[in-house]
Design a protein that fits this description.
Elements: H1 3-15, H2 21-28, H3 30-41, E1 45-48, E2 57-61, H4 63-66, H5 68-86, H6 90-110, E3 115-116, E4 123-124, H7 132-156, H8 163-180, H9 187-208
Antiparallel strand pairs: 1-2, 3-4
């Protein structure tokens, strides 16, 4: 699951426009941003198995980011911090928090059983990664529906049309990169590449919709 996570960001931006797009984009991948840093630091563990169908990732240890309790904690922390820093309405902070938690829900659909229900306990996942075509269809379908809602909201706000397809095109480009370039092994390569992609997407979102304080 990659661009499917950004569907949650676009849907949240359409439902609660008082938070800037980049906060939702940051929120939907906040868990993976922390995961990337912990992978680089060697705190959480992952490896690559090219023989696996779909995603080659083997996520063996990630209690601090992808366990259910951790996802709840990160949702509250990210939502509250951005709400306070940007002086956003409480409802906007709530929607940012929900966007953060959407990451765990969507991962549950596609991951193999590697998401701990406790900090370290039974692991769950519906394994849609093992069925690449349906999994890709799910991601693209979610993104298309959310993008339509986002486009409608932009139209209501009188925003130009160029930024929207540019941002969506950037997301689709990032989605295609793993298909033509195998994922590197090693914690620096794996975590660093993912972190760069997530942060670049946040910057692109800020460029697409610069923050205008109400």
């Amino acid at each position: 699951m990659f661009v499917g996570h950004y569907a949650a960001a676009l849907a949240a931006r359409a439902a609660e426009p008082r938070a800037p797009l980049w906060t939702y984009v940051l929120g939907c991948q906040a868990i993976d941003i922390v995961w990337s840093g912990l992978i680089i630091a060697g705190v959480e563990k992952a490896s690559v198995d090219p023989s696996l169908p779909g995603s080659p990732l083997v996520l063996s240890y990630m209690p601090w980011t992808h366990s259910l309790p951790a996802a709840l904690v990160w949702s509250v922390v990210v939502g509250a911090v951005l709400m306070l820093l940007l002086k956003l309405p409480r409802r906007a902070g709530l929607f940012i928090g929900l966007t953060v938690f959407s990451h765990w829900i969507l991962d549950f659909l596609v991951h193999r059983p590697d998401l701990p229900l406790l900090w370290d306990g039974p692991k769950v996942g519906l394994s849609w990664w093992d069925y690449p075509a349906p999994e890709q269809a799910l991601e693209m379908g979610l993104l298309a529906i959310a993008a339509a809602a986002w486009g409608w909201r932009r139209g209501r706000e009188g925003l130009g049309w160029i930024a929207a397809p540019a941002f969506l095109g950037f997301l689709l480009l990032l989605q295609m990169v793993p298909l033509v370039s195998p994922m590197g092994e090693g914690r620096l390569s794996m975590g660093g590449t993912a972190l760069a992609a997530y942060l670049a997407t946040c910057v692109f979102a800020w460029m697409a919709e610069p923050y205008r304080r109400a």
